């Protein structure tokens, strides 16, 4: 038996789950574009908070950071200039077009011919990727968990540090 046939296939979820997740992802994008902190918080998992580099950040800390204009989270979402000044050293100077230290807002507002890819990890976990056709291979990836009240964001934001790579 070859390696390709031995590898487990990714989980699949229903078209309804896929449609609901796409709607949540688009609403999250709109909240980022409008700097709607409360709108973003509505999509963050209260039970899981956010994960950054295997570090669990509780919902209350995420909430606090979203209201602090000097936090890594706030700047990485809304303030490209501040984020670049604070964290630009962690992004490769030799390939700034591939991995620029820009906010999610700037990326999402300038992405051209954007596509939204949804990959099911398990029945309850998924990854959503926003890709710009003109800014490839750079993209924004967000992790979601299916909870009692629908799909909730659990990862993909930069929290408490300059990157989550």
Structure report:
The chain is an alpha+beta fold and 165 residues long. It has a single domain, classed as Nuclear Transport Factor 2, Chain: A. The chain is 35% helix and 21% strand. The chain has helices at 3-6, 15-33, 37-41, 59-66, 72-78, 80-87, 104-110; strands spanning 50-52, 55-57, 115-120, 125-131, 139-147, 150-155. The strands form two sheets. Strands 3-4-5-6 form a four-stranded antiparallel beta sheet. Strand 4 and strand 5 (139-147) form a beta hairpin. The chain is globular. The termini are far apart. The model is unreliable at 1-7 (pLDDT under 50).
Itemize the secondary structure elements and their pairings.
Blueprint: H1 3-6, H2 15-33, H3 37-41, E1 50-52, E2 55-57, H4 59-66, H5 72-78, H6 80-87, H7 104-110, E3 115-120, E4 125-131, E5 139-147, E6 150-155
Antiparallel strand pairs: 1-2, 3-4, 4-5, 5-6
Helix pairs in contact: 5-6
Sum up the structure in keywords.
single chain; 165 residues; alpha+beta; Nuclear Transport Factor 2, Chain: A; four-stranded antiparallel sheet; two-stranded antiparallel ribbon; globular; disordered N terminus
